[in-house]
Amino acid sequence: MSSEIVSLATVGILLLLLFTGMPLAFATGMTAVVLTLWLFEPETLYFIPSRIFTLMNNYALISVPLFVLMGCILEKAGVVERLFYALHIWSGRLRGGLAVGCLLAATILAAMVGVIGAEIVVLGMVCLPTMLARGYNKHLSVGVICAGGSLGTMLPPSIVLIVYGLVSQSSIGTLFVAAVLPGFLLVALYLAYVLIRCYLNPSLGPLAPPEELDLPIMEKIALGRALILPVGLILMVLGALYSGIATPTETAAIGVLGSLIVAGVNGKLSFDAVWDSLRRTGSTVAMLTWIFFGASALVSVYTLAGGTAFLQDLITGLPIPPLATVALMMLILMILGCFIDWIGIVLLTMPIFVPVIKALGFDPIWFGILFCMNMQISYLAPPFAPAAFYLKAVAPPNVSLGDIFRGIAPFIGLQIIALLLVMFFPKIATWLPSFMG
User: Fold this and answer.
1) Phi-psi bin for 192: left (phi > 0), alpha (psi -120 to 50), beta?
2) N or C: which end of the chain has fewer CB within 10 A?
């Protein structure tokens, strides 16, 4: 059977199953079984669980449930409310200062949690009502929350970076270091956009009320205590990783311990809180694991049939410059992100794209950062747009899904600008890892 026919059949079967409403994990697994029975002997089915076992036997995969648990505990720890209030008071004299405080709180939260759904829900519950009550523009407010909440895709400890590192066999620690500058580039673009818009049109982001502007300086300094715990946890987790004291998996365990300490100090540590965090972690990781199973099975069978080699030869043989090939990959990922969850995308495409990137002479670490930036776009890009639906679940009734999509549109443009900057100036992603050795 020719590789062209196998490739078309694979895409056709997978799309047919997805259009029936079958979850991605089972659609990919069913496609793998159908391809195996069609192309090989039934005994070949034993190949599928053996490949799944090889993937799941990776020690670094343990960091995924640990970082998810860390995020769930911190969501219960009451950090965001205090953090947002302190940053809001400090930035109150700026036009759009409340939105600036929300973005800064989202950045700190992303560096602690790394679970996008939890971040957006917490920000939506804490920041959105406050901004709307102070007369902030509805579209700007929801855009800031969705864009800020999706920063967890980029900033360590990002689950997306961990899974990309596992699939591409890249250093997770190096990916974490490489993501720092691109992540802060995104934050800088968001802040610049908010400040410029609010200064051009002050009605979008009014100043804080006089009673908050006139707080004594010592009270404002005292609010800085809200930063001690979150910043301390970030330094503890990332410091252990970047200094080489701990591996990513060990760092995740340190993060769980630190989140328990933070919750205890804030008086939020209880049996119910821990039990709910464990339950939600189990649910999230179970979903990820099933997607791991299905996508791994499909990629393994497709590779055995020669499909992966066929696509790699097809991409490398295109009569276009190497950087244009990368741009084409980014476009494919962007389109897929509108319809498929990131975990399915990384497991289905990276076994094909990463060898091509290496053959073209590009750094897979740099490409991993581009991939994560692309997946951040997928969190905001309709019709899939999970960030919009996360926020809608906790938004006031007067905030419609249409309002949210309208609010996130400018931030999608900023994400694309940041992606292009990192694509054309790779040093943004590779300089820090090379500097740190």
Assistant:
1) alpha
2) C
Where are the alpha helices (H) located in 113-158, listed in sequence order? 116-133, 138-149
How far is it, in rounded angstroms, from Cα 333 to Cα 354? 13
Query: Which tokens in the block code for residue 130?
Result: 């406050």
Per-residue confidence at 211, pLDDT binned at 50, 70, 90? Answer: low
CA distance 435 to 432: 5
Identity of the amino acid at 37: L
Cα dihedral 139, 142, 147, 149 in deg (nearest 10): 170
- Give the mean pLDDT of 225-253: 82
Retrieve residue 287's tokens.
Answer: 């979903």
- Give CA–CA dist 182/372, Å, rounded: 10
CA 117, 66, 71 angle in degrees (round to 5)?
A: 35
**DSSP class per residue in 79-102:** HHHHHHHHHHHHTTTSTTHHHHHH
Half-sphere exposure of 237 (CA within 13 A, CB side): 35
The answer to whether the Cα torsion of 184, 152, 146, 89 is positive or negative is negative
What percent of the chain shows pLDDT beyond 70?
A: 97
Burial class (CB in 10 A: 0-12, 13-18, 19+), 70: buried
Residues whose CB falls within 8 Å of the CB of residue 104, separated by 6 or more in sequence, listed in order: 87, 91
Give the SS3 label for residue 362.
coil
For residues 166 and 248, give the distance between their C-alpha atoms in angstroms, rounded to a whole number. 12
What pLDDT is attached to residue 214?
67
Q: Where are the beta strands (DSSP E) in 275-422?
A: none
Neighbours of 57 (CB within 10 A): 8
Give 167-192 as a DSSP string: HHT--HHHHHHHTHHHHHHHHHHHHH
Cα–Cα distance measured from residue 309 to residue 110, given in angstroms and rounded to the nearest whole number: 37
pLDDT band at 213; cut points 50, 70, 90: low
Q: Which amino acid is at 126?
A: V
Task: Give pTM, 2 decimals.
Answer: 0.88
What average pLDDT is seen over the chain? 87
Contact 382, 333 (CB under 8 A): no
CB atoms inside a 10 Å sphere around CB 405: 21
How confident is the model over 95-148, as pLDDT tens digits?
888 899 889 888 988 888 777 877 888 888 888 988 898 889 999 999 999 999
Spatial separation of the C-alpha atoms in residues 348 and 352, rounded to whole Å: 8
